[in-house]
Amino acid sequence: MSETLQLIKSRISANRFDTARELTVDEIRELVGYATEAPSAYNIQPWRFIAVTAPAAKARLKAVSYNQQKVEDAAVTFIVLGDLQGYERLPEILARSVAAGIIESQVADGWVEMARAGYGGNEQLRRDEAIRSASLAAMSLMMAAQAKGLVSGPMVGFDPAGVKREFGISDRFLPVMLLTVGYAAPGNWPRKPRFEVERVLAFNDDRPDWE
């Protein structure tokens, strides 16, 4: 089995972190750099990250995360955000692809118009895209952390309004999840069993009984 496949099979969602081991700013930047390699529609890249590392900031975040201790214990707890208006940055984003010779300017212009038509008047689609893309980026970050000998834990147990208030986050951005990252401490659960493939996979015109 390749190293990448082994990482997928060995990753756990950690709850216990070694509070004596920190991550440097450069290490945190590197993790986010890997996260930004995730895919997104039109390459909109609507993800944003706030790296919470300072004790006082962690305490504020813990208070709006149902006082879960791992928020403070992890070397860094990321607030993973989705940009609800990410499509508005598409002209700037596609200009880079045009300059790199990846796509032609006419194609870029067409994509901009399609994105405006699709997202502009559709709040639900903008929200779906923000959550979808930010989640893909978070998964990329988790796998990068695993490859570097770290553990991570995605969290949905928090008060989104409280997080926005405590960290001055505008309504443009949706708190999608918190993501704790650091070095493991003893006491984490082993990897939990997954459903068998046959339980979750259907082909073509199968009519699986998934209710």
Description:
There is one protein chain. The chain is α+β, with helices and mostly antiparallel strands. The chain has a single domain, classed as NADH Oxidase, CATH 3.40.109. It is built from nine helices and four strands. The chain has helices spanning 3-10, 25-35, 55-63, 70-73, 90-99, 105-119, 123-147, 160-167, 197-200, and strands at residues 47-52, 76-83, 151-155, 173-182. Strands 1-2-4-3 form a four-stranded antiparallel beta sheet. It is globular and about 55 Å long.
Kindly list the characteristics that best describe this protein.
NADH Oxidase, alpha+beta, single chain, 211 residues, 4 strands, 9 helices, 4-stranded antiparallel beta sheet
Write a brief structural summary.
Helix content is 45%, strand content 14%. It has helices spanning 3-10, 25-35, 55-63, 70-73, 90-99, 105-119, 123-147, 160-167, 197-200; strands at 47-52, 76-83, 151-155, 173-182.
Topology:
Blueprint: H1 3-10, H2 25-35, E1 47-52, H3 55-63, H4 70-73, E2 76-83, H5 90-99, H6 105-119, H7 123-147, E3 151-155, H8 160-167, E4 173-182, H9 197-200
Antiparallel strand pairs: 1-2, 2-4, 3-4
Helix pairs in contact: 2-7, 5-6
Helix coverage percent of residues? 40-55%
- Predict the CATH topology: NADH Oxidase
What is the string of SSEs from the N terminus onward? HHEHHEHHHEHEH
Radius of gyration based on Cα positions:
19 Å
Which CATH class is shown? Alpha Beta
Derived from helix and strand composition plus strand pairing, the structural class reads alpha+beta
Number of helices: 9
Biggest sheet layout: 4 strands, antiparallel
CATH superfamily: NADH Oxidase
Biggest sheet strand line-up: 1-2-4-3
Mean pLDDT: 97
